[in-house]
Amino acid sequence: MTTGEKIAFLRKKIGITQEQMAEILGVSRQSVSRWEIDMAFPETEKLIKLSKLLRCSIDYLLNDQASLPQESDTKLSIRTAYEFIRDCGYFFLATTSDSKPNQRPMGMIYCDEEFLYIATDKRKKLFSEILENPNVSLASYNLHTRKWIRVSARAVKETSITVYQEMVEMFPGLKQKYIGEEEVFFVILKICVDAIEMD
User: What DSSP character marks residue 54?
Assistant: First the structure.
């Protein structure tokens, strides 16, 4: 495979478009397109960013003979967990309060390369339970594949404007629900993943 073919293959594998890749790397979509058809070559700075984004070595991208290390079946990525949950369309979030487990169905979830994020309301019991004990578990079941995913994690309040904007754009209903004075009750929780299991 050429460098361009590898970039295209890995971009599709992580599930982003040429436009999204261009935005992340700070280049035009045409630049990404030209890289992928081997009409242009990324600068060194962009190669470094590409290797991080595509989760591969620079050597793999540059060397025709280098092969991509096989992903271990035992180590599931946060992106894999996110995509599994999004395919299911829902997940259950379990918390603990007064030594009693509480589980509730949820649907809104967002992911970057390091964390999962969920949105809730500061007035809900869920938020007070997480303040009391940040250890949580997410679980989802895919009816078509008959597979489960379980994510053990810690939930902490997220204050990033970027994550806020991404979630509101992804789930427009949040903007409609939390306007004016109500916005102070909107909170995003960052899910710091400790372990992911899939059956």
Answer: T
